[in-house]
Write a structure and sequence with these properties.
Blueprint: H1 2-14, H2 27-32, E1 34-39, E2 42-43, E3 47-49, E4 56-57, H3 59-71, E5 74-79, H4 82-90, E6 96-97, E7 111-119, E8 121-126, E9 143-147, H5 152-163, E10 173-177, H6 180-188, E11 194-198, H7 202-208, E12 213-216, E13 223-230, H8 234-249, H9 252-259, E14 271-272, E15 275-276
Parallel strand pairs: 1-5, 1-6, 9-10, 9-11
Antiparallel strand pairs: 2-3, 3-4, 6-13, 7-13, 7-14, 8-11, 8-12, 14-15
Helix pairs in contact: 1-8, 3-8, 3-9
Length: 278
């Protein structure tokens, strides 16, 4: 990691602001003038489609375009099922993934991550259950829906062991779903008592469906959201890290987060695989 970080430092110091990091881009990307980014636009406000126009919107979309502009390339968004996003990058069908993906140790076996935001799993239910769930401890023994392809099941299992079983209460029952949107459907249909979802998505959700959902406690764990790059491609990763540094320094990074109501989740520096770059 130290060697990689040293290379990143040189990249930041050497290249100009308007195309910072561009000289480290793979030749095929420079020649094409574009970067192919895998995304699954079903996770507002991170990435989603405007229902009226079909246009891609969201924090990841705005940040991805701003980073590409710093690098002097265009973005080709490649819509990909979440289960296929990592294979798309490792097989070269996409250059990187920018799709509300958590930087997890097990994912680092295939990808390097440029972290760009804090996140955390949050319990919530419907407002009609407000008297049932006054604190997270009231969830012990209840059925909780959450996307099975995320870290949520592992995080919720750990939380249950520490907060339910350790107190002699029954564990929560994890109900794995295809996505967070599917978990909400199960909640509305009464198949689950509550849901776990990333805290970054809930302000948007509660703004769209007012007086519908009830937050239960605070986020019960934390993780970074990251842009994923295939292992063995430090040039592309470090190019993006250099461009990200510029967006942090000129204020555009915080402006993008603020436009989605998520400025409180901003990072205080550049992080690669969870480690801060000095």
């Amino acid at each position: 990691m130290n060697k990689c970080l040293a290379g990143l430092g040189l990249a930041i110091a050497w290249f100009g602001v308007t195309t910072v990091g561009a000289a480290q881009l793979p030749e095929r990307i420079k020649s094409a003038g574009k970067v192919t980014v895998a995304t699954q636009p079903v996770y507002p406000p991170m990435e989603y489609k405007d229902p009226a126009t079909g246009e891609l919107k969201g924090l990841d979309i705005d940040l991805g375009r701003a980073l590409a502009k710093q690098l002097g390339v265009e973005v080709n968004w490649s819509e990909t099922a979440f289960e296929q996003i990592i294979p798309a990058v490792t097989t070269g069908r996409a250059d990187l993934v920018h799709s509300g993906m958590s930087d997890l140790p097990k994912r680092r076996e295939a990808l390097d991550f440029l972290d760009y935001m804090k996140s955390g799993p949050q319990f919530y239910s419907v407002v009609s259950r407000k008297d049932d769930f006054r604190t997270p401890a009231d969830l012990c023994g209840k059925t909780i829906g959450m996307s099975r392809v995320t870290l949520f099941p592992d995080q919720a299992t750990k939380w249950s062991a520490q907060n339910c079983e350790a107190s002699g209460k029954p564990p929560i029952v994890i109900f794995g779903t295809q996505s967070s949107a599917d978990a909400r459907t199960q909640l509305r249909q009464g198949r689950v008592d509550a849901v776990v979802q990333g805290a970054e998505t809930l302000p948007f959700l509660m703004g769209q469906e007012k007086d519908t959902y009830l937050l239960i406690g605070e986020p019960f764990d934390h993780v970074y959201q990251g842009i994923g790059f295939a292992k063995g491609a430090p040039g592309l990763r470090d190019s993006y890290a250099a461009a990200f540094r510029v967006l942090m320094e000129n204020g555009e990074y915080r402006k993008i987060l603020a436009s989605h109501g998520l400025e409180a989740l901003a990072l205080d520096g550049v992080y690669i695989n969870g480690e801060r770059v000095k």
